[in-house]
Amino acid sequence: MKKIKLIFEGGLGNQLFQLAYGKYLQNKFECDVQYDISKFKTESVEYREFELDSFKISKSWKREDIKKGRIKRFGFRYIIYTPITYLYLRIRTSLKNTRKQIILDNLYLHGINIIGIHRCHFANYTDPSFSLLSPMLIYGQWIWKEMVKSQENYLKDEIKVVTPLSDSNAHFLEQIKSTNSVGVHIRRGDYVTLGLIACNIKYYEACIKRMSEIENNAVFFIFSDDIPWVKDNLKVEAPLVFIDNNNPSPEDMRLLYSCNHFIMSNSTFSWWGAFLGKCPTKKVMCPRYWDIKNMKKESSLIFDEWIKIDNSQYL
Prior knowledge:
This protein is of the alpha/beta class. The protein is built from 13 helices and 11 strands. Helix 1 crosses helix 13, helix 4 runs antiparallel to helix 5 and helix 12 packs across helix 13. The longest helix is centred in the first third of the chain and has 18 residues. The model has no long low-confidence stretch (mean pLDDT 93).
């Protein structure tokens, strides 16, 4: 594999996983990297913005021109990929046997790899295999903890916000660095409007109480996409600082990963803030369950050293 084309999509947390996977493949296969951000500019289904321009992207990576329409972006292979994927998802849904699902996953993956597309739909992540076409299109979320962990030192040095710091954020950053700071990320936004999987406010209150017990002089810096709601509903006896200057996501990320400790929501934005934190005594509290509709399955994104909080009792 001599060349890959990385297809970016989703919010900042997802984009960072895609960035990490691109670096992983580049280092493993010594391949050239192109990347495509057309979805953010041409597809109404993508309501987020491409936000990695605020970060350092390797100068060796080449950005593709914006193209409207997936066939123009991906070529004729997309005409083959679409019906194959439709049939694969229909058949997989009908299979109750896990072993048969895995066999089907492998057959599907090898099939689309041959036509130059690599995508894993159900988090059974693996490296791309033989392809007849180049570049290999890398398409999907790639929320893969082990892949990131294998590059930990490199990514913590490479992934940083490089845009100039505003005066208001410089003030917050000074407070964060001069205190025993705990970054608390409370995700609402589309989780609420789309009826998804937001953690209950009682979960955050319990985490703040517990963190106050184990960390002396903790100061809690509150990050959220709905700060007014959080101010009205978060009821705790602890020093709180609300990051309330309507930052874009990269600016919030810079402040968040600068904290000493973390209280996470069930979001990839939270995950990256906690992962990138460099305090040697870092403590991370995270929800045990990320899918509030399935409280029997723990999240696979939690590292062993993180403190799992049973959020099933805060519904």
